[in-house]
């Protein structure tokens, strides 16, 4: 039976095409996992999680895992029908219609565009600190940032398969090192006495609201798993392999996150919860305590390694959404061109220049770590909105286009529960009001959406052919 979504999406003309069958399910899993940044996420997000949940931060992480699995269920259901690079842009076009799809793509491309500026700023600053600490060398952060941008562009230009290979190497290294640290802390810490106490919500520092604060940061840890869906045109047998990649990345890295949250609670102990909350770099503290200062540098290298794999995978996802929207005329059509190898080189180059400008500009204005937090807040808010829109779009999509396959639990209850849970991170990003410049993030997002509505109005009147072509899904 022909796939209705793809039948409806096909157009006679053939524009830019990505390299089909470039990677298999392993490649899609690796890129998705690397985008999540396993070491980076726990290194930077443990402290704000503990600030709310305290000793019970594993409870928040477990809830974040459940929420992410529910979201993955919605994305996988779309991926089985629409193997396209546009991800939420394409999916929501079929769920909400062309205007809803446009606005989803508008929010998505803005959110994903922050990945590069955020990670290049953070990695540049972290690398600068590392060489200063280890070898007393004063090399400005922006030098590292520029070099890293050039390297990431070079890897991306080689194609998605090379990006997956590089990401795999770095992913194995970071999970391996963190795994050794986990084992060290468990074996030498107070694991037997701690037991499952961190999974007791009663140990939350601020009660249920504290669990909620922890859930906010826990969900942000998972941002990136959905990037597998942007590889629908480059993955072999995408209707089968993309859902597998989504579930695998969420469950495997999700279990890793839950273990990490339990290990950090074991490392500090319940009686030292106040110290955990006050420590801005708790994993550095644990590495120094259990590995000694002579080996603690390994953690810093691992975090740098994680950020590098993260930015390679994140940039690939952003470039493919940019490519999809350029191919359909939403942005300059040049962005929707792929070279003879099926690599979206124009979109990749444009994204590299854009990331360089925002990275250096944000670093100059707020410092590199300030830029990291600012761009990361935009990414987090935008992606949570996208997750909610996707979940709701799925309900209409299956009820209308695939009534025979409609499952009340999978296509109804799960998306609604996920949407309700995802309202909490939005509330956490809005209140209490964060410090400058992060307090500007909600207003910037609203302004971007208003600009998108205005742009949509213009193209609806002047270029209705663009809307007619929206939602094109390449492939059979």
Describe the model:
- Helices cover 74% and strands 0% of the residues.
- The protein is mainly α and 476 residues long.
- It has a single domain, classed as Amino acid/polyamine transporter I.
- α7 packs across α8 (141-157).
In round numbers, the mean pLDDT is 89
Specify the overall morphology. globular
Summed up, the helix count is: 20
Radius of gyration: 22 Å
Structural domains: how many? 1
Largest sheet entry: none
Architecture per CATH nomenclature, i.e. the level-2 architecture: Up-down Bundle
Fraction of residues in β-strands: under 5%
CATH superfamily annotation: Amino acid/polyamine transporter I
Poorly predicted regions are 5-15
Oligomeric nature of the chains: single chain
Count of DSSP strands: 0
Key descriptive features of the protein:
476 residues, mainly alpha, Amino acid/polyamine transporter I, 20 helices, globular
Structure summarized in a few sentences:
It contains 20 helices and no strands.
How is the topology of this model organized?
Blueprint: H1 4-9, H2 25-36, H3 38-53, H4 57-79, H5 88-96, H6 98-112, H7 115-135, H8 141-157, H9 160-188, H10 191-194, H11 207-222, H12 238-268, H13 273-278, H14 282-291, H15 297-327, H16 345-366, H17 368-401, H18 409-430, H19 441-462, H20 464-469
Helix pairs in contact: 2-9, 2-12, 2-15, 3-4, 3-11, 3-15, 4-11, 4-12, 4-17, 4-18, 5-6, 5-17, 6-15, 6-17, 6-19, 7-8, 7-15, 7-16, 7-17, 8-15, 8-16, 9-14, 9-15, 11-18, 15-16, 16-17, 17-18, 17-19
């Amino acid at each position: 039976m022909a796939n209705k979504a793809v039948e409806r999406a096909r157009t006679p003309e053939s524009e830019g095409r990505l390299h089909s069958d470039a990677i298999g399910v392993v490649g899609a899993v690796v890129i998705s996992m690397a985008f999540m940044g396993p070491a980076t996420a726990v290194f930077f997000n443990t402290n704000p999680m503990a600030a709310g949940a305290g000793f019970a931060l594993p409870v928040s992480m477990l809830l974040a895992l459940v929420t992410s699995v529910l979201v993955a269920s919605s994305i996988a259901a779309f991926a089985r029908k629409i193997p396209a690079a546009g991800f939420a842009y394409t999916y929501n076009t079929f769920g909400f219609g062309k205007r809803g799809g446009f606005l989803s793509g508008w929010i998505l491309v803005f959110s994903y565009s922050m990945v590069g500026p955020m990670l290049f700023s953070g990695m540049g600053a972290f690398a600068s600190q590392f060489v200063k600490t280890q070898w007393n060398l004063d090399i400005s952060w922006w030098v590292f940032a520029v070099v890293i941008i050039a390297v990431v562009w070079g890897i991306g230009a080689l194609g998605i398969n090379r990006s997956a290979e590089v990401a795999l190497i770095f992913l194995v290294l970071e999970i391996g090192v963190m795994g050794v640290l986990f084992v060290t802390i468990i074996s030498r810490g107070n694991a037997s006495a701690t037991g499952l106490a961190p999974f007791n919500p009663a140990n939350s520092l601020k009660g249920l609201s504290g669990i909620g604060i922890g859930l906010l940061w826990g969900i942000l840890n998972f941002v990136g798993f959905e990037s597998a869906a942007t590889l629908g045109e480059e993955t072999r047998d995408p209707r089968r392999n993309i859902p597998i990649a989504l579930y695998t990345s969420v469950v495997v890295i999700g279990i890793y996150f839950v273990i990490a949250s339990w290990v950090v609670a074991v490392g500090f102990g319940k009686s030292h919860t106040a110290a955990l909350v006050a420590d801005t770099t708790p994993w550095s503290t644990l590495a120094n305590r259990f590995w000694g200062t002579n080996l603690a540098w390994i953690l810093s290298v691992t975090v740098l390694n994680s950020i590098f794999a993260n930015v390679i995978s994140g940039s690939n996802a952003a470039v493919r959404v940019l490519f999809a929207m350029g191919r359909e005329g939403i942005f300059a059509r040049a962005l929707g061109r792929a070279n003879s190898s099926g690599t979206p080189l124009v979109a990749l180059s444009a994204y590299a220049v854009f990331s360089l400008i925002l990275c250096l500009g944000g670093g100059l204005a707020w410092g590199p770590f300030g830029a990291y937090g600012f761009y990361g807040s935009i990414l987090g808010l935008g992606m949570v909105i996208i997750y909610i829109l996707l979940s709701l779009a799925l309900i209409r999509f299956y009820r209308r286009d695939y009534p025979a396959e409609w499952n009340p639990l999978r296509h109804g209850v799960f998306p609604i529960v996920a949407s309700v849970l995802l309202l909490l991170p939005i509330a956490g990003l809005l209140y209490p009001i964060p410090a400058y410049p992060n307090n500007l993030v909600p207003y910037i997002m609203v302004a971007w959406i208003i600009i998108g509505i205005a742009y949509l109005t213009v193209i609806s009147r002047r270029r209705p052919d663009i809307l007619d072509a929206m939602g094109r899904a390449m492939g059979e």
